[in-house]
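fyi for ur records
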Amino acid sequence: GVRFAHEVHPSEIAYDYHTTVRTLEAIGHRPAFGLNWDPSHMVWQQIDPVNFILDFADRIYHVDCKDAKVRIGDGRRGRLSSHLPWADLRRGWDFVSTGRGDVPWEDCFRALNAIGYDGPISVEWEDAGMDRLHGAPEALAYVRGLNAITPPTAAFDAAFSSD
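which gave:
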């Protein structure tokens, strides 16, 4: 009854759309092998996180709400970020607090609802340029604010209840 949720991102065996397809094929689409959907790794690679949800609907076992901001196009900042440290504005992209980046969260939650996702949702906060005591609660409030889209409330509320 144990399921594994692989997080798709660079340095992993499945790091983009096509390597995810190949990974699932290599393991014979074993039902115990699923995906931890984290759009922060997709946006800086220009992978559409909404279509990823729709195309891998039966494999989304966990959701990480983490955001990324892409800052390329000025002729100096590149997608590989030049080995610069996190929060350095010379990077071509960086993780930012959920809701402050380029992830289309509303469309993502609509897609999760469309596929009937009712699993866990976590806020993975990794913004090196912001104070965590401000940023983490802000990110949680942002995700909770998406309730107009009706996220899977039972799993979400259970994960963040203060009781």
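The longest helix spans residues 132-145. thats all i got for now
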